[in-house]
Amino acid sequence: MFADFADGGEMWTGQGPRERRHHVSFSGPFLKAPVVTVSISMWDMAQETAFRADISAENVDRDGFDLVFRTWSDSRVARIRADWTAMGSVRSDDEWAVE
């Protein structure tokens, strides 16, 4: 999602509530908004502060979602990598689309 250590970004140098968003577009649309799960797959955080992290999927629709990472207080986050899975109905090759 980001590497703020490299350029002195706010996740690494800031304090208080901080948020980073990344829009994810699906390779093809779902029939309706899918269920999306997200997790942190790699984190690089300063050891002298508490590890405070929240990651979630917001604004989920048929075409994509916003991947949102938040931290707060004095936590210093150098880098975060996230994984996600979307589950829902998609159009089948056996369905006819009459337009």
Commentary on this structure:
There is one protein chain. The model has no long low-confidence stretch (mean pLDDT 89). This protein has a single domain, classed as Immunoglobulin-like, CATH 2.60.40.2080. It is mainly beta. It contains two helices and six strands; from the N terminus they run E-H-H-E-E-E-E-E. The longest helix has 4 residues, at 4-7. The protein is elongated and about 60 Å long.
Features:
mainly beta; 8% helix; 99 residues; Immunoglobulin-like
Range of helix content: under 10%
- Averaging pLDDT over every residue, what do you get? 89
Please summarize the sheet with the most strands.
Answer: 3 strands, antiparallel
- Under CATH, the topology can be stated as Immunoglobulin-like
Number of strands: 6
- Under CATH at level 1, the class stands as Mainly Beta
In the sheet with the most strands, the strands line up as 1-6-3
Low-confidence stretches: none
What is the number of independent domains? 1
Strand content: over 45%
CATH architecture: Sandwich
Query: Radius of gyration from the CA trace?
Result: 17 Å
What is the helix tally? 2
Termini gap: 39 Å
Large-scale geometry:
elongated
Secondary-structure class:
mainly beta
Q: What is the helix/strand order?
A: EHHEEEEE
